[in-house]
Specification:
Elements lengths: L6 H31 L21 H9 L2 H32 L3 H13 L4 H14 L6 H25 L3 H9 L4 H12 L1 H17 L2 H5 L7 H4 L14 H21 L1 H12 L3
Helix pairs in contact: 1-12, 2-12, 3-6, 3-9, 6-9, 7-8, 9-12, 9-13
């Protein structure tokens, strides 16, 4: 029987137990991918199951570098994702500021249209976009992929920044204007510093979204290969059904690792952005 004195201790222990279970469910698949990537192919399906390989090796990673062009894929991914996030954030800040600060029928319509575009599945617009990129000679180019990546992250980013900007008092910008700041000076020196938590949060979300984007580079590119589509180019063993799980795991870990590092480094900014957006003054 739980008494009134032991109830807080019981609840505290239950919360830690629940946290441990959730952490295990999240971390164990990551651990399994990692040990599968350093396990020789002949030991992957050995019985009994081993949670650490008898003969750990980095042969899978070496094979990806030597035969699959891993470094080139990392370079292409860095260029496309980096430019997409940078340009996308600049456009999103300007658009969100316009939607939040200026009132007009056309801006309201544009904001509603942008929000509605989030409801359209990518597969619906795939063929028209494919034909359009062919027509303007942007198919299988870095420029074409960057434009598509940017268009994919704009609606969500603008929506988050617009809602955050609505909570920033206009009087702060008016005071800066009285002190002699121009429009762009006020935006750069006053508004952007206040937007920092939201900017950090959407940057991290967009980084994960762009890095995991599989459909766009697969459908709109042939010669440019990024990390998310590299798994489709891994050689099969023996026959078409023999999946090289060691190489698949190694490639999966290479994709996951930057996300883990990125979130670990910027976790403070993520929490600040979430709390700032969730707590009203």
């Amino acid at each position: 029987m739980v008494t009134k004195f032991s109830r807080p201790l019981f609840l505290h222990g239950f919360k830690w137990l629940l946290a441990a279970v959730v952490a295990f469910l999240i971390l164990f698949p990551l651990w399994w991918i990692f040990i599968s990537s350093i396990t020789p192919a002949g030991e992957l399906f050995s019985k009994p199951i081993r949670y650490w390989p008898l003969h750990p090796t980095l042969d899978s990673y070496k094979y990806l570098i030597d035969n699959v062009g891993l470094m080139k894929k990392i370079g292409s991914t860095a260029i496309i994702v980096g430019v997409s996030i940078l340009v996308g954030m600049i456009i999103s800040v300007m658009a969100a500021f316009s939607f939040a600060r200026f009132k007009s029928r056309w801006l309201t319509f544009a904001a509603a249209f942008l929000l509605a575009s989030m409801l359209i599945p990518d597969i619906v617009t795939a063929r028209p976009l494919y034909d359009f990129l062919r027509y303007v000679h942007l198919y299988d180019t870095y420029t074409g992929l960057i434009v598509l990546y940017i268009s994919g992250i704009l609606p969500f980013t603008i929506l988050i920044l617009q809602n955050y900007l609505k909570d920033i008092p206009v009087s702060i910008e008016e005071a800066a204007s009285i002190d002699g700041c121009g429009f762009f000076q006020s935006l750069y020196y006053v508004t952007l510093p206040l937007l920092r938590p939201a900017l950090a949060t959407v940057c991290i979300v967009n980084f994960i979204t762009c890095l995991n984007n599989f459909f766009t580079p697969l459908f709109y590119s042939n010669g440019i290969s990024v990390l998310s589509t590299a798994i489709t180019q891994l050689p099969l063993r023996d026959n078409m059904y023999a999946v090289p799980w060691d190489l698949v795991s190694a490639m999966g870990w290479i994709i996951i690792l930057p996300i883990i590092v990125f979130v670990a480094v910027f976790q403070k900014q993520i929490m600040e952005g979430i709390m700032a957006g969730g707590v009203k003054g």
